[in-house]
Amino acid sequence: MIKDIQLRVSLKEEEIPNILLKKASKNLGIPYGDISGIKVLRKSIDARKAKIIFNYKVAVFINEPVPQTSDYTFEYKDVSNAKPIHIIGFGPAGMYAALRCIELGFKPIVLERGKNVQDRRRDLKAINQDHFVNEDSNYCFGEGGAGTYSDGKLYTRSLKRGDVRRIFENLVFHGATDQILVDAHPHIGTNKLPKVVSNIRETILKFGGEIHFESRVTDFVIKNNAIQALQLQNGTELTANRVILATGHSARDIYYLLHKKKIALQAKSFAMGVRVEHPQHIIDAIQYHCDGNRSELLPAAAYSLVHQVNDRGVYSFCMCPGGFIVPAATANGEVVVNGMSPSKRNNEFANSGIVVEINVDKDLAKYEKFGVLKGLEYQKDFEKLAFNAGGRSQTAPAQRLTDFVDGNLSSSLNPTSYQPGLQSAPLHSLFPKFIGSRLRQGFKAFGSKMRGFHTEEANIIGVESRTSSPVNIPRNENLEHPEIIGLFPCGEGGGYAGGIISAAMDGERCAESAIVGL
Prior knowledge:
Strand order of the largest sheet: 13-14-17-12-20-18-19
Helix content: 25-40%
Distance between the termini: 47 Å
Structural class: alpha+beta
Number of helices: 13
Strand content: 15-25%
Radius of gyration: 24 Å
């Protein structure tokens, strides 16, 4: 017999050996010895009150063995000689599209502009130390996409878009810890995700798929409104009649190419702002009601904040406890920041994007001349502003949080995890009013919600501008572009995902649609 039950365990009880067995025995009113084992299905922490509680959902196995294998299986086939599906981009959407193609008996041919995970490291080092951005290999472009070296958070609200559990199980199949199947806010970590990504690559190659790195697509050959071929930067032309476009939210050249070819695009609302960085002990003290020295049983504390200011949301985005801030520019002449955390989340800083909703129909009147690309052009100007304010390198413009809110230039800045360094800048006056004023009001509100959040020990660092794509590539109910036969916009780049898991699910769906009729 198997019983699913909920258990509540205090922080002090969490230290007791076999506490879940003991609690399950009492909860079910059965002898301790009748329980063969317990499988944790879900674990979360309730720290809303001073007494911290671990909430467990568990499966209790009564007089029967606990299964050692997953219910999920992945049946990959040899597709060496199968019909091809071309996939542009090898981030989460592209990877999962390729894996799904193999399951369905089709050969994925992946074209990735960047390098593999190992070779990307040299280019990331160049950004951090030499302030040089390789426009094809950086924190956004390369094997695994932006998620590989920017945290690996797996939380998603897109529960109706596909089988979330299947996506998680496939990550475990490729080397992720099975803890991600349990945690309420699962996370792999930037230090561990590259190995998972390289394992996925090996699966695709093993079963006959192809992956071509440093292969940037520069043009689509279209005849009679149908994809015929792809042209690469090196001059190669590849015949292709099914193309999954999974290039991510930062592949601006793709948007320009589609626009130039008069292929339908749509302007899309998005969000921009800053990264705020606190010493982690401050966030721990606020969230765990302690002096900042949290119990070893507790992870580095996180937070989620939102406030409405003049009909626009101001909210935290991609919060990274125990993490780092990284330079996420994809071209020289711009400064973009993002956050990441290692698997243990044991760095001394906590950081999060704090961003303002941008309504492309109401907020960008001066950019109307750019039509559907108005959000993209505004985003670019915002990043150039940060580049100039930071000293025209990857050094980022920054301000103490309290000085930003009060409108004062910071005479000094706090220590930071951002390797290229910070330069004091008057972000309060540099930012456009509809962003800056909302950020200031948002920070005040967050200081009221989390006592201690609004502190001079925190820096704000500019700019957080790549929260999502400012462009949508439309598609019909078959996930195909309404004008171009054989083109399947996918994932974050198309405007259909907002993270690793939702992008992966969209990749699978696009693969399932792309094979129809082949």
